Structures are given as structure tokens and as C-alpha cells.
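no rush on this but wanted to send it before i forget. what follows is a protein written twice so to speak, once as letters and once as C-alpha cells for the fold. mainly i need to know what kind of three dimensional shape the backbone takes. thanks a lot i owe you, the record is right below.
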Amino acid sequence: MTDWQITTVISQVRHTDSARSLRLALSEPFQGRPGQHLDIRLTAEDGYSTARTYSLSDVRENRTVEVTVERAEDGEVSPYLVDVVEVGEPLEVTQPHGGWFTWDGRDTAPVQLIAGGSGLAPLMAMIRTREVVAPTVPFDLVYSLRSPDRMLFADDLRQLIEHRRLPVHLAHTRSAPADDPRPVGRLSADELAEITIGPEHEPAVYICGPNRFVEHCAAAMVAAGHQPGRVRTERFG
């Protein structure tokens, strides 16, 4: 039987017109792991309830967590989380779950992150945790997004780039800033092999995003020489 607890929304960050992050104060503290997710349940006045799973984008504290949600137009839960719920209101959540797609800060191996769209959320939890527990571990991020107005965690990424805390490669697939030297388009296998950490360094590779994006990137990384067991994936859609 699933254990649920009541949390309180204590802050929110609007990323785009269809995505935002919610910071939740926990009534029963827990320590999540970067890469995990939890379930959020909504219950109507007539007793009908439904739940969906969302990625944790910040697990640095054990009394608060951050979840990041992108609206699914036909969704039952995400429209409420993105457009309706307000700071101070309650949300019902589970403990974090998922153990395969997680990063352990005690691991000193390089880490290659590859995100498509809102797949950046669990990878941001890894980046934020690394800043606290293992800032010297080599990290590299490739982030594929449709256009600049679809960027999640823009302030975080800007600071990472400006302070050179880790390499960030942005790949716009439909429209890009005028000063972006990269041509608009999807990531190719050759481009991924060129801009990511090489297999000779044996990085742990984490790929998260839509199904086709994840399948393409995972196949490209294995073809480039990465061991399949070092390539971990999380997909949606």
C-alpha cells in the first residue's frame, strides 16, 4: 500500500508557458536521490482521485523538495500543477522512488548528461547535488530544446555557463538565438560523439527525454564506443 503525505507548496518558478517547478515543504522529511521521482495525487470533492509521476529537480534538502512539471494538454494532473495550484496550498505526494536512473555523489567517474525538453528536470537534480557534494567530478550537459522560449532552468544554466562550472551544449531544433553558431536541427550521432565525454574516460551517461530522442541518443552513444551498461535512460511520451 502506498504511503502518502501532505506537503505544502512554498514557492514556484515559472519556466515557460507550459512548465514550472514547485518547491514542497514535507510534513515527513525524507532524503531523495538525484534522478528519482515521486507521485502526486489529486482528489476531487466527489472522492475521485488520480495520480501521476513527476521528476525531482532538487533533492539537496530533506525537508523540502522541488518537482518540475510540464503541462500535458490531455492530462488530469499536470494542468492543475502548472496553472492552478498556488503557494500555500497542499499537495499529496509519495516517497521518492526509482533506483536505476540515479547518481551517487560518492562516484568519482565523469558524468555525461543528455536531456531533451523537460527531460532536463532529473538531470538538474544531479547537477545541483554535484555542486554541493562533489564539485570536482567532471560533468558535461547536452540539452536539446525546440526554441529559446522552451528552455527550463534558464537562470541555472546561465550561471553554469558564465562561471564555467560545467560545459553546457545547447541544441535548438526549430529556432535558435541569432548569435548561436550551431545550425538549427536535431542532434546527430556524429555531433553527439564530438561534443560529449569520450568512451575512453568511461563516463556514466544519463539520457532523459521523449522516447524517440532517448532511443536515438542511447544508440548513438553505444555506437560511439560507450558500454551499454554505462548508459542509463529515462523516457516519457
Notes: The mean pLDDT is 96. Residues 120-133 form the longest helix (14 residues). The CA atoms of residues 8 and 89 lie 6 Å apart.
